[in-house]
Amino acid sequence: MDTLSYVTVDVFTSTRFEGNPLAVIADARGLSDGAMQRIATEFNYSEVTFVLPPESPENSARVRIFTPTMEVPFAGHPNVGTTYVLGQQAEIFGKPVGEKLRFEEKAGIVEVSLKRNGARVAATAIRAPQPLTVGDTIAEETIARCIGLEPSVIVKTTHAPVFASVGLNFAVAEVSGLEALAAARPNLAGFQAAAGRQTTSGHDFSLFVYARTSENPWHIRARMFAPLDNVPEDPATGSASAALGAYLVSLAPDADMNVRITVEQGVEMGRRSIIALDVVKSNGIVTDVIISGSCVAVMRGEIILQD
After folding, report:
1. Is the domain of 271 the same as that of 188?
2. Domain identity same for 280 and 193
3. Domain at 231, CATH number
4. pTM here?
5. Contacts of 243 (CB under 8 A, 6+ apart)
6. Catalytic choice (47, 104, 111, 140)
7. How many domains does the chain have?
8. Which residues does the entry assign to the active site, renumbered to this chain (predicted)?
9. Is 111 an annotated catalytic residue?
10. 84 and 150: one domain?
11. In this structure, what are the phi and psi dihedrals at residue 132, rounded to the nearest 5 degrees?
C-alpha cells in the first residue's frame, strides 16, 4: 500500500481549531499535477501545499499551492503554515533548516523567516513576492450583488472597489462598518457574473471586504469570499490582506512610511484569525510587505494513494 504523510496546522492563530486550516505535504516527490489537485479537492481546505526539492540549489524548496479547484501562484496562509511545518524539521531534502528559507513558487521567490521561542517555532513571516499592482475599478453594484448588500454600504471615501495584488489578485472593497460586514453573504450568481465581466487576469473573482474606523485605521476587520473556488468564505487570507495593506499605504499622503497593520478575519465563522502586516513605503512607492502570524499543529496522518 502506497501512502503519503501529511500534517495540518491552523494558521494565523495560536488557538487550535481557530485560524485557517492548512494541509502540508512535506515531501511531494512523485506526485503528478492531477494527484495534487485531487488531494487538495479531497481536503477541501482553502489551500493545500506540496513541497518539492528546489530547482536552484540556493533555494530551500519548491512549494506548489492548490485550492480545491486550481493551482494558485502565491497565497499567504499556505506560506506561513508551510514554513511552520518545515521549521519543525531538522532538514529539508538533506539541507539543514536555518532561520530563513527561500521558496520557489509560481509567483516568484518567496522569502520566509522563522521566529523561535527556544526550539519551538513561535511565528513565521513571509515577504510578498511581487510589488503592488492595482487593476481595474469595480462598480459598487457588482460588489453589493456578490455579497447580498445594498450598494449604499460600499464606501468609496478612500478608494473605489478595485483589483489589487502582491502575488495573487483580489477584488478589495470597504463597507460602512461591522454591521454591514456581518450581514454579507456570498451570492454565487453574483460572483459568476462578476468573473464573466473581469478583464484582470490571474484568479477567479475572489472578494476581500473590510471595515475600519477613522480612530484606528490600521486595525482592519475583514472577510474573504471565493465561492468560485469552492471556498464560500476563508477564515484568513494573507495574500489579500497584504494586497489591501499595500494599497492603503500607497494611498496615504506621506511619502515615507513604515506601518504595522493588523487584520482580524474569520470572526463571523467562529475561526478568529490575526494577520500582522509590516508595510514599507519610500518616496511614495510601497517597497516591502511582510506577512506574519502564529500557527498551531492539529493533525498528522497518511493519504492512501493505492492499495
Report:
1. yes
2. yes
3. 3.10.310.10
4. 0.95
5. 132, 164, 165, 166, 168, 169, 170, 172, 208
6. 47
7. 2
8. 47
9. no
10. no
11. -60, 130
* CB-based contact 222:182 (threshold 8 Å): no
pLDDT grade for 199, boundaries at 50, 70 and 90 = low
Cell numbers placing 47:
489551500
**What's the domain range around 177?**
133-291
Q: 148 and 114 in one domain?
A: no
> Under a CB-based contact definition with an 8 Å cutoff, are residues 231 and 170 in contact?
no
Tell me, rounded to whole angstroms, the distance of Cα 95 from its chain centroid. Answer: 27
Q: Say whether both 18 and 80 belong to one domain.
A: yes
Hey, how many other C-beta atoms are within 10 angstroms of the C-beta on 56?
A: 9
Instruction: At 122, list the grid cell.
Output: 513561535
Spatial contact of 231 and 68, defined as CB atoms under 8 Å apart: yes
In angstroms, the CA 266 to CA 252 distance is 27
Report the amino acid identity of residue 280.
Answer: V
Name the grid cell of 39: 488531494
Grid coordinates in use for 141?
A: 453594484
